[in-house]
What we know:
heterodimer, A: alpha/beta, Rossmann fold, 7-stranded mixed beta sheet, 6-stranded mixed beta sheet, 15 strands, B: alpha+beta, D-amino Acid Aminotransferase, Chain A, domain 1, 3 domains, 7-stranded antiparallel beta sheet, 4-stranded antiparallel beta sheet, 10 helices
Amino acid sequence: MTSIETIRKKPQSILVLGNHPAIMQSILDFDFACRKKEPSVIACITANRKSLKLFFGKQEMLVPCFSDVTRVPKELGPKIQWMLNVQSGRRAYESTVAFFDAFPKALGGHIFAENVPEQHATELIQRYGKEKFIAGPSGVGLLVPGSLKLGAIGGTDIAQIEASKLATKGSIAVVSTSGGMTNELIRAVALAGKRVSFSLCIGGDRFPVTSLTDVLLLAENDPKTSAILYFGELGGVDEYEIVELLRAKKLTKLVLAYIAGVIDEAFGEHMQFGHAKALVAHKDESARAKRGALRAAGASAPDTFPEFLAELSKLPSTEIRDRVIPMSEFENRQKSILSTRQIVDLDDVPVFVKGKKLVSRGENAFVRKALEALLGREIKSEITIAFAEAVFELLIDHGGNVSGAVNTMITARAGKDLVSSLAAGLLTIGPRFGGAVNDAAATWTLGVQSKQDARSFVQERTKGGKLLSGIGHRKYRVGIPDPRVEAIAQFAALLKKRPHYDFARAVEKVTTGKNGSLILNVDGAMAALFLDILVEAEGYTETELQELIDAEFFNALFVIPRSVGFIAHFIEQKKNDEGLFRLPDELLYVRKSKKS
Amino acid sequence: MSRVKISEYRAKKIILGDAYKGISVHVDAKIKLPKKGKWVAKVDQGVKKRMKQGLVAVDISPQAAMRAFAKWKKKGFSQFLLEPLVKHAPEEEQYLSLERVREGIRVLHAREGGIDIESNPEVVQKYLIRNEEDIATIAKSSKLPEKFLRELIAKFDEDFFAFLELNPLIVRGNEAKPLDAAALVDSAGAFFTRAWTDSDIVKGAAKHPSEGVIEALAATTPASLKLNVLNTNGSLFFLLSGGGGSIVIADEAQLEGAGKRIGNYGEYSGGPTRQETYLYAKEIIKLLLASRPPAGGKKALVIAGGVANFTDVKKTFAGIVDALSESADALRVKGVKVFVRRGGPNEVAGLALMQEFLKREKLLGSIYGSDVVITKAVEDAITFVTR
């Protein structure tokens, strides 16, 4: 079996069997509070999802999930030292055996379930009792302040980790069968101005894998531990193990114990208390008898809990230097509701035209064929091909925030297939999202044909607060240009005449005079330039342009590349697989319906 | 999780299979009993020392058995067993028990059995079964039939027995016949075996209705909810959390000499939901309101527990407040005060919620968080009810 000192010496890592986000988050908070560089939870075994979103400090992280221990990637295997088994009592045995079969070098673990059959527990003792360090079945786990938190032990909110000073290494070992009292004693140690060396909750089950004797010997052999704080209850004979160790001088460190259960004396019949062990069968299992035996062997076993705490405050302690826990890092953390990858780098917009010449980007047969298919004629100019390629490249994705991408991701998380998820995204394209290219083309055509000046055109078209397609952006404004617009605007330099583009720019001048955010947007710019290129490079007539507008051709320029982006988001969701999406309550305002 | 008694009938049916000819008789069920023969009638409700209490009748006719059942029914028993009489000499009686222990199965055997076995501990041989091979060795030295022992231990293991006592056990050559059997099974094994079910578990003495309510509620949640009614006219009522912490708090009452004033003992833990905590609290408030302490004494509710690891203080306190608000007027009229000490996740918000409510409803005795000793609330409550 490993020693407590080994655990302190190098970073520890945990594989969680089952899904208990609150306990996992508390472990990550403990790690962060201890200023660990890496979180100790490295993966989770759970069905129906491939990742679980948690925080490491303020930063969100995805813990990878696997359906089975055998599916944990080979490269993670050697890193896994601890098992945290939060599965039900029905599955605890088989999953523990599967864990140690898969990771025979692991040091031990904690089994959280309370209803593990006795027979399974004794089987686990036979298999692992000698070599592995296993807290439970039942209880709240193992804690080595500053180094390892394996389970709910010490609490699940950061305020508890702070109040109990769990980031600070100390000198008092806390041992108990009761999960709640383990934590009560951990806090009591901090309140007494001392710190915990390690703590293990043995659990209230009849057959804990690592026994009380094992734990006491770990404490005896731990150079950092100077005293042992023990909480026991009436029933069972565990405390006689302490007595024997003290008598045999195998345990020489100070033992301060509180044995609860004198309440039993107030009632004729023995009551079943909180734990299975607390059913008194013989006289010597009473709280009073066990206190007496402990005292006779040299331990301190006060009669009341306040006296016990007074004794605790008298225990020797070492000099304490508390690590300051950056509490602000844990405040106001708001979990994002979707996670995705950056599909394209939005900050890295390529150069398409340099010194009035196309930058050669190689022959693109697909774009040529696609354009010829859409337009129904042979493409004459390289400029047309290069422009379409530029547009396709720029519009593949615009991040995971936009409506279409969100709908694609939510549909994917509902377990739907590629085509359904893509369709959900595509069906979102319309007047407010992505579907304004064609409208912009119609606007510029109308403007050029009407021969109106931009100012009166704008005045006429925006009467009654109407919006102009191709104008306006939520993020970019005058002074913060849209890099995508800048990139495609380069194509204007390749054209002799560009009536649509010039008109669009003239309109922009008018609108930005009113509001800096009413700039020519990417829909407007690409519509204008494509119109000009079709006229100059491909010889399109006014009538032919109108046919394309009527057939909504210009929206295809968005739909084609964005389909790729939606599919990329879909694939990313399937990889993450965080389970069914549900909007958190705090993100939804629900108004009461009126009663009739 | 815990060891529970199953009926002698079920235990023997598992051990002996079809060879067992006993008849299980429930007080209200119509059962065709045999007309003649010699029989043994017993109460089958896990009662200890049945013979000494007169709850066994040996060598009787079926008619006499019926009369015995009627007599026991009057004493409040409802589950009986009728078995064919096995004629034997007293010296044929042996003692055998099996218990699951950390190292395997502990076997106690004595070639002299009978009801007085406890007064002759020196005749009892102790063995430990760690593996299959141990069984042959034990059969040899105990002279118990090996086939019987092997099958018995297989059943014990497969069917999640925790303890089994066969006393007396009649051994004749290769045959072994248990006359009486007492068995505890591991309730956590219920999911894994078909040999016994919940209906075979022996129900204890008649419970207080509130205990039945909480037991039914506990069966529907992974959280732990326990209740024992101790004194229906007590003055201290407990709404405690955590198995260990609840005992520490109850101990304090006993040490302060207020043990007899405790109305109930119990605990909730393991992260019950707001709704589950509401239902649990409601039952305890009902007990408190119904209680009539001697000489019109005062009553207090103690909501206390240790520093929880993962049970959310705010959520569980919200459930308690839900229950308290339903009876706030009745509690105030009776002059009940509420004393609180609790720590754990969302401690500050949970305590604030409780304090605000108790103040508004004029029910506040005192309220403390994890920076104050766990026993403080109960101490305050004792001062309040004894002053």
